[in-house]
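Explain this fold:

***
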Amino acid sequence: MHEDQSLACNKSNNAFDTGVKVAETPSRLAIIVGSASKPSETFIREHIRSIAPGETVLVSSDESASQQNALVALDNIGGLARAKLIRAALDRIKHLRFSRIYPLPVAIGEETRLLEGLRAHGVTHVLIEYAHVAAQFIEILKRAGFVVWVHAHGVDVTTIPQIRRLRSPIIRTMKVADGVFVPSQYIKDIVTELGCATDKVVISPCGVNSKVFSASTHEPGRLLMVGRMVEKKAPLNSLRAMRAIVSACPHSHLDIVGEGPLLEESKAFVVAHGLGGHVKFHGSTSHAEVQTLMSRTSIFIQHSVTATNGDREGLPVALLEAMATGVPVVSTYHSGIPEAVADKVTGYLTAEHDIETFGERIIELLRDPAKAQAMGEAGRKRFEEGFTVERMVERIRAAMRFSA
């Protein structure tokens, strides 16, 4: 099993180089996304900032977007001030809404206004975040002659297609799109099983801007976990491991960033097991606060698992951010994670739900700071080779044949 995942990692690295030349014809990009302001989806904001800076047309169902227009200035979505202010042509589309999960068809009137707005602003290429959002627009946009790519991230191709009435729209989307970006070889295999031609799928991990992450000071005993408090992140597994970690290393402390349905149960577990002095819940914080916590961390932990409904990770961005900071990662053999974290080189990987081994690996690194730092430095090098924003932009622009 681990050997297969190692092979997948090698395939992934080779797939970073598309070999496609960027077209010389000027292009303009539109990004369609259900929401561009979710705290946990920093990768979407990075796409908006970086793929076509200052020339991106954003279509979103955020409340802030609908109050301005459906086509909005990106500086209204939290610090994206480099984007170009584009409003006037889509005044009439301000009531456009996206179904949260169900790929319902867009109303005829909204379809017309959407196309008019995109054409008015010279859009040639469209990138749609998540396959279930793309299912609502793919036919409309393809008939209108746009180049349309879908960025699948995880839940949209693992969990949603298991819902019987949603499977066909997702499969149709995979076939109709000009191409599909995925974060890992693991997700690529799933997308091809859904009927997407292999040569249309491009592996493009969501890049991290290394300039905003300073090297960690590796504060002794400081652990960090970042992500939504949901089943696939298995926060309770990490907290169960903390019982053994605290016993072996009384100075250890875990910072947890994120909110979600398992937050209250996790807090109750901490109280019940006397971990209050060793665990701090930060809730949903700003990205700047995450950067600050990361800059102090000695080990990043992420016990990802396959949820009971089939939901799986793509490739957690917070994990890549830890690598960018020079912090070793202790995680699991899950989805695309082994394609980023090299076991025994940039950190450690354990089997899903193997809480005992997970804790032992963390204790080992807490007791050997020099080894932890060396793994972190190896992780930083691996990050720079394939997971930076620059590499992401290069892959996406080349594959879409996009040239501003």
